[in-house]
## 1
Amino acid sequence: MAEQLKDLADDRALLGRTSTAERVSDILRSRIADGYFPPGTRLSEDSIGGALGVSRNTLREAFRLLTHERLLVHELNRGVFVRVLTVEDVEDIYRTRRLVECAVVRGLGEPPYGLDALAEAVEAGRRAAREGDWKAVGTANIHFHRELVALAGSERTDELMRSVFAELRLAFHVVDDPRRLHEPYIARNVEILQALQDGDREKAEQLLAVYLDASLARIVEVYRRRVGEEG
C-alpha cells in the first residue's frame, strides 16, 4: 500500500487549487483501473486523503461517486473496498458492451471514418506485446474499444462506457494468465480496424460480436475455476 500511496501523492498536481470530489474520483478511478488498488483492497480515508491532500468530506464524496459506478463497495463497520466482481457482473458488463459497441459500429454512417485513434491503440497493443508487457496490452485493448465507442460522437455514450470499461478492468485483474487473455485480441482488433478502413460496417460488427463472445467466455471460465478452487 505504501508504494501505491506514494504514486497517488504524485497525482496531487492534477487537483489544482480547486480540489473537487469529481477530480479525486477521476484519479482513483484511473488508479483502480490500472491495478494500483486491486479488487478487495480496503481504501483508507486517512492514507488516501493525506496522499492527495484533500479533506475527509471530499474523499467520502469521491468514494460515494465511485460506489455509484460500482467500482467500490461500502461494508458496514469495515470501510470502503474495491469491488470484487461476480460472474453475473461480468456477464452483465459484456451484455452492455455488446449492446453499445455493436450499435455504434452499426450506426456509423457512410465512410470514411476517423480511425487514427483506433490505429494508434492497435499499434500500442502490438508494441506492448513485443515487449512482453501484457498489462499494457490490456490497457491498449481497452483504449481501442473506448475509441471505437467514441466514433459515435456522443458524450453520454462515452460517459456510460467509461464506467463500464473501468469495471471491466476489475475483471481483468483476477485473470491469472494475462497473456492468454489479451494476446488473441491484438489480431482481432486489427481485423476490426481493417474492416472499418474498408468501409465494411457489417463485417466490423460481426467481428466485434464474435470478439466479445470469445472474451466473455474466457473470463467467465477463469471466474468459475476460481470459485471452484475457493470452494
Note: The CA atoms of residues 68 and 163 lie 10 Å apart.
## 2
Amino acid sequence: MRPYLLLTPGPLTTTETVKSAMMSDWCTWDKDYNEGIVEEIRRQLVEIASSRPEEYTAVLMQGSGTFCVEATLGGVVRPEDNLLVAANGAYGKRMGVIADYYKLNCHVMKFEETEPVSPEAIGKYLDGHDEVTHVSVVHCETTTGVLNPLAEIASVVKAHGKTLIVDAMSSFGGVPVDMAELGIDFLISSANKCIQGVPGFGFIIARKSLLQQCKGVARSLSLDIYDQWETMEKGHGKWRFTSPTHVVRAFMQALAELKEEGGVAARHARYCENHKTLVEGMRSLGYKTLLPDEWQSPVITSFHYPTAGFDFASFYQKLKAKGFVIYPGKISQADTFRIGNIGDVHPDDFKRLVEIIRSL
C-alpha cells in the first residue's frame, strides 16, 4: 500500500492501521460517532496541549490547516482590535494576507526567512504600540524548517498583556508545548501533521474564557469558530456541517498510536533522531544545511543545492523511483530542497535514503 515514503511536512506517511481505520462508514448524527469519537478527540487534544486542561477547549474544523488559521483570525480579532503578525516565512506572511482579506487592523513584522523571529523586536514594537491587542506567530516555519523561540516570544507577549495566537501546524504533537505554562491563548494545528493522521480537518485549542467572548465576531458562516464550538458543546460532538467522518476516525487511531509511542516527548525524540541521521548522512555526502543547527527544527530540513547546475526535478524523480518523495525549496534567497522528518518514518529510513543519494 506504500508506493513511496512521504518525506514531507504533511500530508505525511501514515501507518497501515491509521489508513485501515477509514474502512468503515460513520453517521454524523450517531451518538457513537459524536460522543465516542469526536468528544474523545477534543478531550485528548486539550490534555496533550495543556497542563491545565480545564482552562482550554478544542474546536474541530473542516478543511486544511489554513482554514483553521483563517477561522481563528477572522473569529477572534474584532474590527476595533489590532493584530501584530511576526513573520519569517510563507506561513507567517499568509496570516498577514488573511488579515488583509478580513480588513483587520494589522501590522506584519517581517524577519529574514533564514532567521528566527526575535522576541526582543516584538517587545520593542509592543513598547511603542499600546493599541496592539493580539500577536500571532508560527512556531515551526516549514518554509525553511526554522523553529521560532516560542517560550521567549510568549513571555514577551504575555508581559505586555496581549492575546497570543500560535500557528503550531507543523509542531503540535511532535514538539512539546504547554499552552498553560507559556500563556498561549489560541493554538492551531491540523490532522495530517505530527499526530500522523490524514488530511481533511484541523483544530483550534482555545482558552475557554477568551473563546466565550467571541460570539458574533466571525465574518464567515463556515469558519465561525465560536458557532462551531458552541454546536459541539451543546451537541456533544456534533459538527454544524458534514464532518469528514473517515478522517476523524483515522485521527482517533493516530492519537492512540501517539500514546502507544510514549506521547509527545517520545515522538519528539524520534523526530530528532530522524533529523540527526539525515543531517549527518547528507553532510557526509557534502550537502550543506540552510540553517545553523541551533535554529533548526526536527520537522523539516532544508539543504542547499550541491552544485550550480543541480537538477532538482531529475533528483526528485530518481528518489521517487527508489521509494522516497521529498519537497522543493520555498525561498528566493537560495536554491534549496527540503526533506521532512515527521510521519511514520524512522532513522533506518533515513539511512536508506542517504545510501540511495550516495548511489545517485
Note: The first strand starts at residue 5 and ends at 6.
## 3
Amino acid sequence: MDLRYGINPQQQAAYVAPVRPGQWPVRVLQGSPSYINMLDALNSWQLVLEAARALHRPAAASFKHVSPADAAVAGPVDDVTAELYSIDRDGVGALTSAYLRARDADPKSS
C-alpha cells in the first residue's frame, strides 16, 4: 500500500505490506493514509481485537499519533450522546454503541 508520506509530512512517501500477502486487517475507503495513520489503524485493530476477546463484547477504539484516544465496549448509549447524533438510543446495535461510546470519551481527538 502506498502511503501519503512517512512519519512527518515533509518526508517522502512510505510503503507498507501485510505479513501475509492480500490479508490486511484494515481497508482504506477514501483518501490516502500516512504512515502514522496506518500505525493508528493497526494499533486500534489490535486493541479492539484484544478487548472484544477478553470482554466478550464488541469493542471500538481510535488512536491519535500512535496513542489511544478512545476505547469502549458495547453497552447503553446515554441520552446526551443519542441526542447529539440524532439516534434512537434503544435501537442502536452493539457495534454502533461501542463506536459511539468510544468516540464520546474524547471527541476532539477522535
Note: DSSP finds three helices and two strands in the chain.
## 4
Amino acid sequence: MSEYFAFQWHITDDCDQRCKHCYIFSENNCKSLDSMNWEQMQEVLAACEDFCQVYHRLPYFYITGGDPILHPNFWRLLELLKSKSIPFTILGNPFHLNDEVCRRMKAYGCQKYQLSLDGMRETHDWFRKPGSFDLTLEKIGCLKRAGIRAVIMTTVSGTNIKEIPDIIDTVVAHKADVFAFARYCPTSEEKDTGMTPMEYRELLAVCDKKFKEHEAAGCETYFNKKDHLWTLYEYETGAFQIPKDAKESVIYGGCNCGNCHITILPNGDIYACRRVQNSKVANIFEDRLADVWVCQMEQYHDYDKFKKCAKCELKAWCRGCPAVASGAHGDFYDADPLCWKEVPGYEGGNS
C-alpha cells in the first residue's frame, strides 16, 4: 500500500444513530447535518486525483459519514470510482446491509467494510442503538458472502475496557476478517479516557495473549495492532527491536496525521485527522489540496515538538496517539495520557 495515499472522505453527516462518542456531534449536539451535493463530490474527487498526480501517489478512499449509504448519490459515487479503477473501503453501519446491497458494493469495487463493536450486547447497544450488536454480527456474514472483507473496529474506554477480551472471542467466532481497536479520544468537556496508563498496558498484554491463542488455533481473523502504543509494548517485551541501520532523521512509523492520510468533511473542510477536533487546515473548495499539503499541513510534521516523544528512542516508530493527547490536553504535541513510559513506579519489563 506504500504507493497509495489515503483519503478519509465523509460524504454526509446523516446517520441512523447518535453514538455517545461521535465526533460529529461532540461539540454541538444541535448542529445541522452537512452533506455534499453531486457537483461537490465530483470536485473533491478531481482535487484528490490532482493531489496524487502532483505527488506521484495513487488514491485510496475510505468512504464514510455519518452513514455513507444514506447519501442520495452513494451508488453514483461508487460507480464513478469504479470507472476510474480507484479502490475504496466503506466505514458505515449495519442497518441497511443485506446480501443484495453487499453484492452491489462488491461489484463496484468495495474491498472492505468497517463495522463497530463497542462492547458486548448491553454496552454496545447503550453506546449506539438498541439491537445494533446482534445486527452487526449478523451482517459480517452478508459482507463475507459477497466477497467483501468484514472489519470490526472497537473504541476502547474505561466503560468497555474489561469487555475487550470477550469482544475478541466474539469477533473470531463470527469469522470477521480483521479486528482492531483504537482509544476513545476525549471530546467536549470530557477530558478523561477513563483508563490509567497501567490499566491500558495490562489490556495490551491480555489482548496479545488472546491474539496468539487464536492465531495458534488457526482463526481466520487478522488482528491489526492499530494503536501505536503497541510499539512501546512490543519493544518492552522484545517483539519489536530498533533496526541497527535506522537513520536518526527518518520517521519510520507511528501516527500518519499529516503524513500519508487526510480527512475531508461533508462541508469541504480538510482535517489533518478527524479525531483531532481542532485540526482543520483548509477547505477543499477554497484551497488546492496539493498546496495545502506542503503549507498548512506542515504544522503536524515537527516531530521534535513532541513534549515526551521527542526524547524517546521510539520517536521514529511510535509517538502514541496525538489525537488522544490533543483531546485530553488541547495540544497535539503533548504527551499521550496513556503512555506508561516513565510513569512513577514503573520500570518496564516483560509481561
Note: The chain has a mean pLDDT of 91.
